[in-house]
Amino acid sequence: MNIILLGPPGAGKGTQSAGLVERHGMKQLSTGDMLRAAVKAQTPVGMEAKAVMERGELVSDQIVSSLIDENLAAMPGDQGAIFDGYPRTGAQAADLDRILEKNGRKLDHVIELGVDVDALVERITGRFSCANCGALYHDTANPPSKEGECDVCGSHEFKRRPDDYEETVRTRMDEYRAKTAPILPGYEARRIVSRVDGMGGIDEVAGAIDAILS
Ligand code: ADP
Ligand code: ADP
Ligand code: ZN
Asked: In CA terms, which of 34, 78, 80, 158 is 20 to 30 Å from 101?
């Protein structure tokens, strides 16, 4: 099973991917996570992407498609892939078709997480993660069960992303509307798009996604 989780920044793609990995043993391929790792490691890709990401703009198609290509090729053929935050442009969607074909895979579902814009800003400005294991949290909607301690690994260190501020969030939304939303009709024509209401609780959204996959 190969699926795309599509939705604007803050829709819950990362949170739902983590759930799918846990429930179904799929692998999450998040270009945002890959790029952040490259920035941290100061690789050539990371050096090129850093400023673009901080402005909330899109990194080049060539960079992100190469990352997906490399990571997918390294997966066992029978493990399902979740594309999280990729593709984000028409060119990336075309790249993904080629990459999947090369690996003998096909796209089963494009799941669109629908959320309202006001909620997104709230979600993103409240987002933080465990500095040790990357588990995702939210100040009010999804705090660790014990304050200041990661539920998953027990770490006491947390971090916030440098692009999770209100001005940047607006740019990221504009990029989504202008460049990412237009790839949906192509997938609709292939009858693989399902819409999920992303405004429900995390478990409710997870249930709706599982219903589509079953
Ligand atoms: P994305 O990967 O689409 O940008 P995330 O999964 O990182 O989104 O979620 C953004 C923020 O919203 C995180 O702080 C996360 O804990 C929180 N969040 C995710 N899903 C929900 C939900 N269904 N209800 C409330 N908050 C959520
Ligand atoms: P979000 O919470 O906005 O879904 P991501 O972690 O997916 O965040 O992406 C963070 C940033 O990384 C984006 O704003 C963009 O600069 C860059 N990025 C991630 N994925 C892509 C992609 N597929 N194409 C271009 N840029 C990307
Ligand atoms: Zn942790």
From this structure: 34
Contact 82, 25 (CB under 8 A): no
Evaluate whether 87 touches 5 at the Cβ level (below 8 Å).
no
- Residue pLDDT, tens place only, 111-137: 999 998 888 999 999 999 999 999 999
User: How many CB atoms lie under 10 A from the CB of residue 60?
Assistant: 15
In this structure, the residue with its CA closest to atom 19 of ligand 1 is 12
Phi and psi at residue 27, to the nearest 5°: -110, 135
Ligand 2 proximity of 86 Cβ (cutoff 6 Å): yes
Question: In 3-state terms, what secondary structure has residue 125?
Answer: helix
pLDDT in tens, 22-38: 999 999 999 999 999 99
Q: 């739902």: which residue's tokens?
A: 16
